[in-house]
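Tokens as discussed.
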């Protein structure tokens, strides 16, 4: 594996393990009918310590890192190729450099891994990306690719954006609820895991267990950042609560095209219910824009109160939890977003589209080259699902984060299919931002705000569809 940029230091080492198993032999053999000796797979990728995607240059004993390394080594050996990474921390610069290369007709990159909401969302409709359905080696409906992307991000029979375990950041994207076990015990609240497994983790139950928890610790008569809160959350949590309750931002219309749906009676009821439970200033701390101890790292500030024992529940994405809570003193657990009611059949998990979990192929990849690129991607995705994902579960999530034997059951629920929402990615008429802000009480009166933005939102959606129609003709 060749690298063109320095990778940030890996996390703390853990014991090593072998990640390639005989269980994968049969499927891998179907992908190695032809070799591509001497070819190089060039991957342009966003990678940060809190949003990792790139393996180390050599094995280091950290099990997830070693699994990534072995994934690439296996792919290289079986296909006779070299995998080369061009690494960026700045997703904006990555997008610009990719645009410039494609516009110049340079086939500089074969795969791009970056943000869906700030990168692929414009690259795809502007014609910079290839239709993944045209690459016969990719099984986009398989478990190792995002089913949500396959369903929600396909247009006129073509799909330009996907996600899944091939991006390690996929495992960092879910928005979840973390709970402080000490505070749960002090208030004699039933085990959150049991509530989830019994199907009783609903938005009403959320409201029930958060009552009477907050305290004015400094005795100044005001609830501020020095006090104890029942719930701390950022604005993205509002969108995650809405999706978790079965809310939709778009749905497929009668003509097969997406239509905006946030103002339907069902969705209005869902949002009203969330607002009635969450928008209680004496119980809920908004972490958006908080500055703690002079820190300028948003994720540190958003997790500070929970880590410091000043919030019983935390709404946030797995990236911040994995990165900033590993050395938390109090035991804590992770559960999915609550359901709307007990009649809802399953828990639904919203994935943050802002991290580098989006996967695509530049349009400059030739038809002749697409066979190698698709085969390599499929092998990397499959190995990521069967080996890297296992290490991510067993080490980073279970041992370092969840600290409880029932945690795997929660993770199975959370990762069943991470939902990447079309409006969460494109934010038509700023309606996605308005929705999430109103859901947690940062802004008021969603109905009037949505009504005033609807014309712009519909125009934005139609513009997107026109762009996709123009590149699919």
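Sequence:
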């Amino acid at each position: 594996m060749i690298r063109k940029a320095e990778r940030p230091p890996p996390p703390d080492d853990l014991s090593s393990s072998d990640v390639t198993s005989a269980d994968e032999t049969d499927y891998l053999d179907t992908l190695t009918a032809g070799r591509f000796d001497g070819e190089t797979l060039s991957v342009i990728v966003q990678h940060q310590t809190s949003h990792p995607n790139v393996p180390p240059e050599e094995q280091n004993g950290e099990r997830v890192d070693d699994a990534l390394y072995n994934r690439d080594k296996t792919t290289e050996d079986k296909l006779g190729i070299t995998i080369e990474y061009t690494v960026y921390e700045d997703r904006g610069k990555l997008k610009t450099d990719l645009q410039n290369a494609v516009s110049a007709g340079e086939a500089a990159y074969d795969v791009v891994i970056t943000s869906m909401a700030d990168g692929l969302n414009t690259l795809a409709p502007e014609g910079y990306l290839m239709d993944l359905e045209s690459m016969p080696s990719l099984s986009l409906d398989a478990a190792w690719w995002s089913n949500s992307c396959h369903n929600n991000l396909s247009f006129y029979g073509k799909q330009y954006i996907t996600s899944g375990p091939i991006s390690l950041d996929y495992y960092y994207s879910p928005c979840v609820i973390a709970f402080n076990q000490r505070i749960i015990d002090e208030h004699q609240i039933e085990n959150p895991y049991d509530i989830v497994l019994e199907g009783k983790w609903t938005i009403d139950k959320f409201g029930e267990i958060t009552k009477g928890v907050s305290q004015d610790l400094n005795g100044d008569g005001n609830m501020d950042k020095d006090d104890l809160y029942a719930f701390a959350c950022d604005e993205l949590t509002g969108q995650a609560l809405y999706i978790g309750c079965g809310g939709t931002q778009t749905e497929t219309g009668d003509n097969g095209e997406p239509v905006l749906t946030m103002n339907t009676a069902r969705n209005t009821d869902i949002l009203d219910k969330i607002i009635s439970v969450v928008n209680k200033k004496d119980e809920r701390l908004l972490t958006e824009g908080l500055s703690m101890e002079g820190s300028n790292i948003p994720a540190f500030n958003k997790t500070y109160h929970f880590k410091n024992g000043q919030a019983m529940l935390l709404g946030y994405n797995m990236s911040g939890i994995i990165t900033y809570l590993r050395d938390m003193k109090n035991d804590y657990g992770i559960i999915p977003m609550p359901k709307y009611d007990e009649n809802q059949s399953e828990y639904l998990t919203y994935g943050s589209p802002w991290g580098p979990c989006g996967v695509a192929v530049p349009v400059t990849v030739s038809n002749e080259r697409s066979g190698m690129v698709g085969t390599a991607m499929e092998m990397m995705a499959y190995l990521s699902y069967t080996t890297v994902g296992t290490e991510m579960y067993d080490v980073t999530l279970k041992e370092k984060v969840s600290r409880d034997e029932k945690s795997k059951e929660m993770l199975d629920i959370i990762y069943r299919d991470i939902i990447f929402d079309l409006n969460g990615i494109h934010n038509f008429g700023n309606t996605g931002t308005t929705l999430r802000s109103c859901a947690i009480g940062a802004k008021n009166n969603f109905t009037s705000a949505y009504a005033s933005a609807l014309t712009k939102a519909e125009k934005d959606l139609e513009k997107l569809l026109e762009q996709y129609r123009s590149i699919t003709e």
